[in-house]
Amino acid sequence: MKLFKKLISTIAAASIVATSLFSLSVGTVSATTTPDIRLHSTEVTYQGSRGNTIRTVYIKVRDTEKYGKVYVHYEYAPGMDWQDAAATKTSFKSKEGYSIYKASFSSYTNNFCLCYDFGSELWDNNYGKNFDDKTLGYNENVKAERTYYPSNGTYDVSAIIRNISYAKEVKVVWSEDNFKTKKTVNLKFSNILDRSSYGDQCERWKGTIKGIKNTKNFKYYLTYKTVADGKTYKDNNFGQYYNYNYTVSRG
Fold first, then answer.
1. Which residues contact 180 (CB under 8 A, 6 or more apart)?
2. Residue 149 region, left (φ>0) first, then alpha (ψ -120 to 50), else beta?
3. What is the pTM (predicted TM-score) of this model?
4. DSSP character for 52?
């Protein structure tokens, strides 16, 4: 893998600034195809007692059918060479109609970026800041975050949102009968996250669902409404919703 070359697409919807870890090479891309790669979402699925984590990354890519492979380039541990994790295509589509690829990898740091290899290499590295497990995807404004150990008919909910409005409403909508009936819980601001997402500040909001009687049929999704313009954004896990088992495994 050419770890020291990056192609920056000058015709992509948003320019990607290269990290200082790599030198640049110039490539060309046909204006009729405009290949593109962006982070869709990311999450930690396992957290070990020694600081190691397993991350799952969802990547949205345009024109993969014509071109090559998609992978995550990540720092396994401080001071070690970066490694690559191949991504495989899922049946999901992004709201723009992009193909969704998925990759999982284990590491001891939070740093990763994305590559789309179609003969040349097109990179997305969050404007030079790289990504971590809390970074929101491009053009995504709300994402469920895995929490720990639900019990006794309760479920803690955590949401990562893009701070695009001062006045906002963040809610979890849940059901035990496939949303024939549903209930809503307001989430509250918890903290500002250290790393921005494509230049935007991100926040964590939290809340607790109580009174769950049927954990097997329990499902939920998130909504985020900006009060100023009334726009509402949603995360429903590609239409599959989230369930009682959406938690982080602990080592």
1. none
2. left
3. 0.83
4. -
